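fyi for ur records
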Amino acid sequence: MEKPNFRTEMLRTLEGKTPSQIPVGTFTTAPVLELMDVSGAARPEADSQPEKMAVLAFSQYVNASFETLRYPFDMVVLAEALGCTIDPGTKAKLPAVLKGSMEISPTVPELPEDLLERGRIPAVLKATEILREKAGSNLPLIVGMEGPADLAASLCGTTRFLKWTINKPHIVKRLVELCTDACIVYGRECLKRGADVVVIADAVSSPVMISPDAFRDLIKPGMSRIPKALGRGKSVLHICGAADPIIADMAECGFDGLSLEEGIKDLKSAVHTAHESGVVVIGSVSTSRTLFAGKPEDVKREAFECLGSGVDVLAPGCGIAPETPLRNLKALVEARNEFCGRNR
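which gave:
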C-alpha cells in the first residue's frame, strides 16, 4: 500500500478538511537524547549548525515515525537575535535566557533592520531549505518560535514583565507590538524558505502566569495580527497550562490550529469551542507524566482519551523532555493506528 502524503494530510487537517487518517507528530520542541544518538546529530551543535539541525529534525520521522518535522529545538532564537544573553545549553539542557537585553538597557528597543541576519536565525533558515529539499512534498515542516509575551518577558525579565502587566500596561503594549513584529518578520521568512507551519509558543500567556483579562487586553491584539500577516502560510498557537478560560480568545486570534497542553481541565469542551470557530486542536498527551515517566501502554491509554475527546492531530501536550524514551514516542503513532483501525 502506498504511504499517505503526510504533508498533504497535515495541511488538509489545518484547513478543516477530513484527512485519510488523523495525523500524529509534534508541534512542540522534541530534542530527545535517543534521537540524537541514533541520528548522529546532537545538541548543542544541532541548535546552531543547519546541517545537524536538519538531520535531528528529520530523525523525528525516520526514528520516531512522527509525521512532522519540528525544529528548532529551543525557544530562545528570537530572544538571542534581539540581544538577550543566552546559555547555549548542553546535549541534555536546552538553551535559555541568562539576561534580557532590557535588563542591560531599560528602554524598549526598536526592531533591528538586520533581524534575519542575527544570532541563530540564519541557521534556522538554512535548515529550513535543507529540510524542504530532503522532505520534498511528503512531510510538513513545522517551525517553532517564542510568542510575543514570551519574547517580551525574555527581554525585560519574567518577574518584571508580570508586574508590568499590572502597573505598567502601556510599556507591555509597546513591548508586545515589537515582539509581534519580530515574530511576523521571522515567520514570513521561514515560510518563504519552505516551512509549512509556524508555531507560536507562548507560555507566559497562560492563565497561570497572567490573568485572562491581561491576555485579552495586552497580548491578544498583537497575537491576532500574526496569522493575517503570515498570509497563506499555516499557523498554530500553543499556550501552556490550564488555558480553559482563554480558549475562545485563542480561537478568535485567527490561527489555523491550537496546540493544547494536558493541563487543560476539559479537553472535550476546549475542542468544541475551537471547532465552533473553525480551528483545529492539536495535543495533548502529557509530556512529563506520560511520555517521560510512563510506559508505552500509558501513552496509548492517554492517546486514546485525547482522540476520543476529538483532537484533530495527536501530539505531545508540550515540549518533550530530552530523556523521554523513544519507545514512548513510537507509542503515539501506534495508538493512532489502533484508534483509527477501531473506528473505521
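The beta strands are 69-71, 85-87, 96-99, 141-146, 197-201, 234-239, 257-260, 280-285, 313-316. thats all i got for now
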